[in-house]
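ok so i was messing around last nite and threw this chain in just to see what happens. nothing serious, just curious
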Amino acid sequence: MLLNTSPKGQELFSHTDSSAAWRLSSHFLKSIPFDQPNLTFCCIGTDRSTGDTLGPLIGTWLKDHPTFPYEVIGTLEQPLHALNLSETAQSIQDRPEAPFVVAIDACLGQLDRIGFILVEDGPLFPGKAVKKELPPIGDLSIKGIVNVSGFMEYTVLQNTRLQVPYKMGKVIVRALLLAWQRHQLKVISNRHDDRNNEYAWK
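result:
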């Protein structure tokens, strides 16, 4: 189910909704510049805490996809986490041409929002749930609410069932790949229309 009760610039999607991947892909098509070659996906988290595996799982699945053309930072094998996030964010900012960054991370939230995916314009503030001071990162944020906030957040993240970030990650990856494929089809269709228009004038 897509909720329209979020502040402006935010959208909430339930990962259990049968049409979640399609709805997410439609939103990604509008908010992610797939025509930009230096598009970068920063998938934040660690496999040392089950609740924090959302980012590395998504990064691994995207990187393992045989034709996904964009840069992916943060996987199960090479995680993007508190120890290297500042350095990574700075190195991205120091590039001659700054990429459009999609930042992905797990987060904690209200009990009735567990399992929801939050897409938000602007940067993500990693580590906020466990009171860590880390630099903001991203032009677009994708956050998966994996458990409840408000009490012993670090312990809550560590004791989150793996199936929650796993299932949410699968939906987000399907939506990203679908959005990219829909973008490719749109490009091909536009080229076909341009050729038809060119022939019509001859």
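not much to say yet. The beta strands are 2-3, 10-14, 40-43, 71-73, 101-109, 116-121, 140-148.
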